[in-house]
Design a protein that fits this description.
heterodimer; A: 445 residues; alpha/beta; Fumarate Reductase Iron-sulfur Protein, Chain B, domain 2; FAD/NAD(P)-binding domain; 3 domains; five-stranded parallel β-sheet; B: 429 residues; TIM Barrel; Alpha-Beta Plaits; eight-stranded parallel β-barrel; four-stranded antiparallel β-sheet; binds flavin-adenine dinucleotide; binds flavin mononucleotide; binds iron/sulfur cluster
């Protein structure tokens, strides 16, 4: 773990928006839980945390036990407590939601896991050592969950991470009003102390070859995420201050200036795309002081892939939403000064209906920056993976996460095209179980 | 990890959590599921001559939205044929030889009847017998249950009959519907009992349906008194367990019962001397799954306290259960309010002003909330304000005397009150 950077080196950052629960609040909320049988919240959680059980443990003052219940199902329970869209997962399924107010499951989960993290109560127990080793590409949620599951079963797990710091999008991507990089890194460090071997600054395919990985490990888990947002192919796109949403967010989170020649405070920016990433950019830019934030989406609001509650939050922050609008050209001499946009209308019904320009609808938005958030394109490494089928940056897997090459397994965004942290955790864990069953357990016998 | 296993008068159990004799232990299907969930033992639903039950049978009292703070029932013993029960018991024991399986018995007060049921029960391979001298309704009208438990001579007599033939440990389950639980406990001991379990349910009328003008639970416009249990009865049960465990004339292992819902409740019973605990209502409310939290919570607690086993916890609080006259009159506490935590609800003020000792002053602050001040010379240290305060740790009781360990009990004091002018009643008006 010594080669992991100290989270304390990070610059001071915006605090998490939702304050933690006090002990009184946690107890009062825990006592509201009905302890449903075959609870819908547990079923709604992709990692199937036994929610009534951990809440009952909080209610009886066994907070460490509550954390154990959470972490045994989801080692990233602390970050999931902050970043999960609970409105559509556990809390959305809460039976009290219909006539009452759902239990604040996310906040209770955070209460218990923060308690354990603050006291250094180990999030997992390394199993008795067995022969067998897995190389894991990517220290994002999928890779970490896979590694944790393997270590618990007693196998070696070596995580190779290209970035300077571990955590994947937990560190670099999710909105910092939900979770600061500091918390993400603290969580990784907490896990790593239990025996995860995480090597940052090692890009597989560049710093170490796949052949080397194959020689060192019995199986390889691919948890590389979806990479960068590809260019839109617009005229003027190579001007300074036209940025990838992920870089923009990462810069903001790590306290680096996201625009090359001017502060974000007071700037006018246009964000292109209708998913959760574009919404995060708008909300974060507004919170960081941008003067005007435009959000362009080519279809109508109801078709937006983003969660309604997140869009709502963004609009509360002053985002100006332009639906049925596409970018045509980025304008500027030595840097961005505007974005030419055009109205479109669908021909027919549905999400895939062709869009046609509305004649005479072009106009210029005066902006100093354009952020592209039109979806991540997949990582280059996929092309190097031997015999592993993939398409559009998405690796093809069976229900256990096995790829078309039986030594290669995958999980997280790079098999789903981009879901949530909790899905990545569930998929990483599931792949580890598959690897143990199909490869590692056979090795010993 | 602390050792949770227990030995109860020779009956071994991987943990101290047993199911009480009640509907959750009616059938093999249930008890097998319970053992799968982790219960260390079970006391089979009382068997005897099969009975007929009424419908409906249960009533409950809720408190501020919390369901089933107290439960009552007018159910009798098992309504299943004896042979089915005995077959089921044998099957469960075969599947789970490591768990404690005890069978609760109740038959008419004839020596042959008891001999017969004891022999047939022990043939199943069960680990022990529990004599139900506690059921307060129905069976008592027929001279069984609490009709036996309320008369020490009968209790002693029947235990003697049972011990004439029993090969496994005999536990006597006591009724709380007596003036002093120690009398029937001693009688059981005289009769040769190996252990005790308490409490069975408490006589009660659950409430009145004001439209039907009938007590609950309603059986065709009427009801009968029934047995009360659940979280509400825990303090009564704790007191009785402490009495029995502290009585040198009893000196038998005790299985604590009454209102146990979680590990904390269980730990309290054990700290007062119980070796195992039994649970009924909490399982009737939430199912067998609660035992996992009880196991996890108790072992976490033992670890936190540096205790290596349940046995090390047993009876730890018992020496502190004293008679009033032994308590220290030198010891004095007063309430202290942590202003930084106070939310200004004024509940402590009204409680003390109207219901206790007029020792809290109140004023309305700039935000329209109540700001309270403890009048230290008036506070008698009764605890009421801290009990009504909704905020954890806001009102605490602080020790203010400077007598250290020097104990002044009532006997010493009353021999010469004038020598102790600092002891005051706190009311001078
Ligand atoms: C802007 C944004 C906001 C989001 N907000 C939320 C949210 O609020 N809540 C939520 O639940 N989900 C959110 N998500 C989704 C969530 O972050 C992802 O689903 C999750 O992080 C996927 O985990 P992963 O491990 O598959 O991939 P990633 O987190 O992307 O991690 C992949 C890792 O692999 C590394 N890697 C890639 N190539 C190589 C290589 N060749 N060698 C070594 N390492 C490599 C990368 O550096 C990276 O660290 C958000 C996503 C984005 C983009
Ligand atoms: C519906 C019901 C039926 C019961 N039947 C029996 C019984 O057959 N034999 C017995 O010894 N106790 C019986 N009891 C009493 C319980 O075993 C137990 O002593 C009592 O409920 C207190 O524990 P609790 O507060 O955990 O419920 C019964 C209790 C209930 C609620
Ligand atoms: S619990 Fe309800 S359904 Fe079940 S026997 Fe009782 S009254 Fe009938």
């Amino acid at each position: 773990m010594s080669d992991l950077p100290s989270p304390l080196r990070l610059p001071p950052l915006e605090a998490e928006k939702k304050p933690p629960l006090s002990l009184d609040e946690a107890l009062a909320e825990a006592h509201r839980c009905l302890s449903c049988f075959d609870a819908p919240c547990t079923n709604a959680c992709p990692t199937h945390i036994d929610v009534p059980r951990f809440i009952k443990r909080i209610a009886t003052g066994n907070i460490a036990g509550a954390a154990r219940t959470i972490l045994s199902a989801n080692v990233l329970g602390a970050s999931c407590a902050r970043v999960c869209p609970t409105e559509v997962l556990c809390e959305g399924a809460c039976v009290l939601g219909d006539h009452h107010r759902p239990i604040a499951i996310g906040l209770l989960q955070r209460f218990a896991t923060d308690y354990a993290m603050a006291r250094g109560i180990p999030p997992l127990r390394a199993g008795p050592r067995r022969p067998g080793s897995v190389g894991i590409i990517g220290a994002g949620p999928a890779g970490l969950a896979c590694a944790a599951e393997l270590v618990q079963a007693g196998y070696e797990a070596v995580v190779y991470e290209a970035a300077e710091w571990p955590g994947g999008l937990n560190t670099y991507g999710v909105a910092q009003y939900k979770m600061t990089p500091r918390v993400s890194l603290q969580e990784v460090e907490w896990l790593a102390r239990c025996g995860l071997d995480i090597r940052c600054g090692v890009r597989v395919g560049v710093d170490v070859s796949l052949a080397e990985l194959e020689a060192r490990h019995d199986a390889i888990f691919v948890g590389v995420g979806m990479g960068a947002v590809p260019p839109l192919g617009l005229p003027g796109e190579d001007l300074p201050n036209v940025v990838d949403a992920l870089d923009f967010i990462a810069d903001l989170k790590l306290g680096r200036p996201p625009l090359i020649d001017r502060p974000l405070r007071g700037a006018r920016i246009a964000v292109i795309g209708g998913g959760n990433t574009s919404i995060d950019v708008t909300t974060q830019a507004a919170r960081a002081g941008a003067a005007t934030v435009w959000l362009l989406y080519r279809r109508d609001q109801d078709t937006m892939p983003a969660y309604a509650h997140e869009l709502h939050l963004s609009i509360e922050h002053g985002t100006r939403l332009l639906c049925h609008t596409v970018p045509v050209r980025i304008v500027g001499q030595d840097r961005v000064t505007g974005l030419e946009i055009e109205q479109v209308r669908p021909e027919g019904e549905g999400r895939t209906a062709p869009l046609v320009p509305v004649p005479g609808s072009r106009r210029l938005l005066e902006v100093e920056a354009v952020v592209r958030a039109t979806g991540q394109g997949g990582v280059d490494l996929l092309r190097q993976l031997p015999g592993v089928a993939h398409r559009g940056g998405v690796v093809q897997v069976d229900e256990w996460g096995r790829t078309t090459n039986p030594r290669y397994w995958a999980g997280g965004d790079c098999i789903s095209g981009g879901k949530e942290v909790v899905n990545a955790v569930a998929e990483g864990k599931r792949a580890a179980q598959g690897i143990i069953r199909d490869i590692l357990a056979r090795k010993t016998s | 990890m602390a050792d949770l296993s227990v030995d109860f008068c020779g009956i071994k159990s991987p943990n101290p959590f047993w199911l009480a004799s009640a509907p959750p232990t009616n059938t093999a299907r249930q008890v097998l599921r319970a053992f799968e969930a982790g219960w260390g033992g079970a006391v089979w639903k009382t068997i005897g001559e099969p009975i007929i039950n009424v419908s409906s049978r249960y009533g409950a009292i809720d408190l501020n939205g919390v369901k089933m703070m107290g439960l009552n029932n007018i159910e009798l013993i098992s309504d299943r044929p004896l042979a089915s029960n005995l077959r089921d018991i044998a099957e469960v024991k075969r599947h789970f030889p490591d768990r404690a399986l005890i069978v609760s018995l109740m038959v008419e007060s004839r020596r042959e009847a008891w001999h017969d049921i004891v022999r047939r029960t022990e043939d199943t391979g069960a680990d022990g017998l529990e004599l139900n001298f506690g059921c307060p309704h129905g069976m008592s009208e027929r001279g069984m249950g609490s009709a036996v438990g309320q008369v020490p001579e009968y209790t002693c007599q029947i235990v003697e009959w049972v011990k004439e033939v029993a090969r496994t440990p005999v536990i006597v389950k006591l009724t709380p519907n007596v003036s002093d639980i120690c009398y029937p406990a001693r009688a059981a001991r005289r009769g040769g009992a190996d252990g005790l379990s308490l409490i069975n349910t408490i006589n009660s009328l659950m409430g009145v349906d004001l439209d039907l003008m009938s007590p609950r639970p309603v059986v065709h416009g009427a009801s009968a008194h029934g047995g009360y249990c659940g979280p509400a009865v825990k303090p009564i049960a704790l007191h009785m367990v402490a009495q029995v465990c502290g009585d040198p004339e009893v000196s038998l292992p005790v299985s604590g019962i009454g209102g146990i819902s979680n590990w904390r409740d269980a730990a309290e019973f054990i700290a007062l001397g119980a070796s195992t605990v039994q649970v009924c209502t909490a399982v009737m409310h939430y199912g067998f799954r609660i035992v996992e939290d009880m196991i996890d919570g108790l072992s976490q607690f033992l670890d936190d306290k540096g205790l290596r086993s349940v046995a090390e916890l047993r009876g730890r609080a018992l020496p502190a259960v004293k008679r009033w006259e032994e308590l220290d009159l030198n010891y004095r506490v007063i309430a202290r309010v942590d202003r930084s935590k106070c939310i200004g609800c004024g509940l402590c003020y009204v409680a003390c002003e109207d219901g206790a000792h007029q020792a809290i002053a109140a004023r309305r602050d700039e935000r329209g909330r109540t700001e309270v001040t403890i009048l230290e010379d008036k506070c008698v240290g009764c605890n009421l304000c801290s009990l009504v305060c909704p905020i954890e740790g806001c009102i605490t009781m602080q020790r203010v005397d400077d007598f250290g360990d020097e104990v002044l009990d009532w006997r010493r004091y009353s021999a010469s009150p004038a020598s102790y002018p600092h002891v005051r009643s706190n009311r001078h008006d």
